[in-house]
Amino acid sequence: MLILTLIIPLAGAVVISMLDRTPNLRETATLLTAALLFALNIALAIDVFDGARPTFEIAGFIPGAPIMLGAEPLGVIFGLIASGLWIVTSVYSIGYMRGKNEANQTRFFTFFAIALASTMGVAYGGNLISLFIFYEALSLSTYPLVTHHNNEAARQGGRTYLGVLLGTSIGFFLFGVLWVWLEAGTVAFVPGGVLPDGTDWALVAPMLALFIFGIGKVGVMPFHRWLPAAMVAPTPVSALLHAVAVVKAGVFSVLKVTYYTFGIDLLSATGSSDFFLWVAAATIVIASIIALRQDNLKRRLAYSTVSQLSYIVLAAMLANSAGIVGGALHIASHAFGKITLFFCAGAIYVAANKTTVSQLRGIGRAMPWTMTFFAIGAISIIGLPPTAGFVSKWYILQGVIDAGQPAMAGVLIVSTLLSAAYLMPIVYTAFFQAPEASGAPTHGEAPPTILIALGVSVALTFAMFVFSESALKAAFQITGGI
Amino acid sequence: MISQLPALQVVIPLIGAPLCIILRRGALPWLVALLASWVALAMAATLLSQVGDGEVISYAVGGWLAPLGIEYRIDVLNAYMMLLVAGTSSIVLPFAYKSVAKEIPEEKHYLFYSGFLLMLTGLLGMAITGDAFNVFVFIEISSLSSYAMIAMGRDRRALSAAFTYLVMGTVGATFFLIGVGLIYAVTGTLNMADLADRLPPIYESRTVLAAFAFISVGILLKLALFPLHLWLPNAYTYAPSVVTAFLAATATKVALYLLLRFGYTVFGADFVFDIVPSSQVLLALALVGVVVASTVAIFQNDVKRLLAYSSVAQVGYIVLGISYANVTGLTASIVHIFNHAATKGALFLAMGCIAYAAGACRLESFAGLGKRMPMTMAAFVIGGLSLIGVPLTAGFVSKWYLVLGALEKGWWPVAVVILATSLLAAVYVWRVVEVAYFRDPPAEGPVLSDPPFALLAPTWILTGACVYFGIETSLSVGFAEQAALFLMGGS
Amino acid sequence: MEVLGHFNYWIVVVLMMIGFYALIARGNLIKKIVGLNIFQASVFLLFISFGKVTGGSAPIIAEGIEVYSNPLPHVLILTAIVVGVATTALGLALVVRINERYGTIEETEIAQMDGES
Question: Does the model's ipTM exceed the 0.95 cut?
Answer without folding.
Answer: no
